[in-house]
């Protein structure tokens, strides 16, 4: 059985790497026959540093489905097409947004150095911060803040994009239309009703809809309604739930 984990706010907290106790819980899962997949809003570049080295070759989905990697290699990306960017970029500039735009590996960042996103951005210093027009592809955008959020929301609804609001951080994730964690999982060969999912936010809805069993970590009204069960976003309780699943579903 495959088991898919969102990362931030689900099994790692405050942007920190997986804790030793969480790593042990995941290894306990593996010892009971589970195959682990990671699915995060982070691009692969920023997903890898929060994992222990021996888990960096695991199948993973990044950028809410825009990046797919396996065996330590990026196997596919889903960038914005030229026509969408020709509408999206002027909109971002019009509302004077502070942003993060992710390319295949490098990025363009215009926000403050103190922003939480910046603190978690390329922590190993392996990428370049370039002007956005020097990125070969733009795969994902995050709007950190802007002058007119109402106008931005209204205009984004007219474009072929998918948006996710992160209320606790007051940011907007923007991905190409048709991209989701579930499409990324499909690219890894994951099939409906053949996996368990852990998540905590709206960007996990697509995989919860396809999972045979799902666990919502913390309080999220929409995700919680469709989850098989819910657990508080306290690391010790999440670990307890992981161990409970492993012990009850030896494969």
Descriptive account of the structure:
- The protein is an alpha/beta fold.
- It has two domains: 2-77 and 180-248, HAD superfamily/HAD-like (Rossmann fold); 82-176, Hypothetical Protein, Haloacid Dehalogenase-like Hydrolase, Chain: A, domain 2.
- Helix content is 29%, strand content 24%.
- The chain contains nine helices and 13 strands.
- The protein has helices spanning 20-31, 44-47, 82-94, 116-119, 149-156, 181-187, 205-208, 221-226, 235-248, and strands at residues 2-5, 35-39, 60-62, 67-70, 73-77, 98-102, 107-109, 140-145, 161-166, 171-176, 195-199, 213-217, 229-231.
- Strands 5-4-3-2-1-11-12-13 form an eight-stranded mixed β-sheet, sandwiched between helices.
- Helix 2 links the parallel strand 2 (35-39) and strand 3 (60-62).
- The longest helix is centred in the last third of the chain and has 14 residues, at 235-248.
- The protein is globular.
- The relative contact order is 0.18.
- The model has no long low-confidence stretch (mean pLDDT 94).
Shape: globular
Sheet with most strands: 8 strands, mixed
Subunit organisation of the chains: single chain
Tally of helical runs: 9
Strand order of the largest sheet: 5-4-3-2-1-11-12-13
Structural class: alpha/beta
CATH homologous superfamily descriptor of the largest domain:
HAD superfamily/HAD-like
The third-level CATH topology of the largest domain is Rossmann fold
Q: What gap, in angstroms, lies between the N and C termini?
A: 7 Å
The total beta strand count reads 13
CATH architecture of the largest domain: 3-Layer(aba) Sandwich
Which bin fits the share of residues in helices?
25-40%
Mean pLDDT: 94
- Supply the CATH class of the largest domain: Alpha Beta
Order of helices and strands: EHEHEEEHEEHEHEEHEHEHEH
Strand content: 15-25%
Radius of gyration: 18 Å
Estimate nothing, just give the exact number of structural domains: 2
Low-confidence stretches: none
């Amino acid at each position: 059985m495959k088991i898919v984990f969102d990362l931030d706010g689900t099994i790692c907290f405050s942007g920190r790497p997986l804790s030793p106790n969480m790593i042990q819980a995941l290894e306990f899962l593996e010892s009971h026959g589970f195959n682990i997949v990671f699915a995060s809003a982070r691009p692969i570049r920023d997903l890898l540093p929060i994992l222990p080295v021996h888990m960096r070759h695991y199948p993973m989905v990044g950028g809410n489905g825009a990046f797919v990697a396996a065996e330590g290699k990026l196997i596919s990306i889903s960038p914005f097409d030229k026509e969408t960017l020709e509408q999206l970029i002027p909109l971002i500039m019009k509302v004077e947004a502070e942003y993060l735009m992710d390319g295949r590996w490098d990025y363009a960042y215009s926000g403050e150095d103190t922003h939480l996103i910046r603190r978690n951005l390329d922590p190993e210093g392996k990428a370049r911060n370039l002007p956005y027009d020097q990125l070969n592809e733009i795969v994902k955008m995050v709007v950190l803040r802007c002058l007119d959020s109402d106008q931005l929301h209204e205009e984004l609804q007219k474009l072929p994009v998918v948006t996710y609001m992160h209320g606790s951080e007051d940011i907007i994730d923007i991905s190409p239309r048709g991209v989701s964690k579930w499409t990324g999982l499909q690219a890894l060969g994951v099939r409906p009703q053949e996996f368990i999912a852990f998540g905590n936010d709206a960007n996990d809805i697509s995989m919860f809809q396809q999972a045979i069993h799902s666990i919502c970590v913390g309080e999220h009204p929409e995700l919680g309604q469709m989850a098989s069960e819910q657990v508080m976003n306290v690391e010790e309780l999440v670990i307890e739930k992981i161990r409970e699943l492993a012990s009850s579903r030896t494969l």
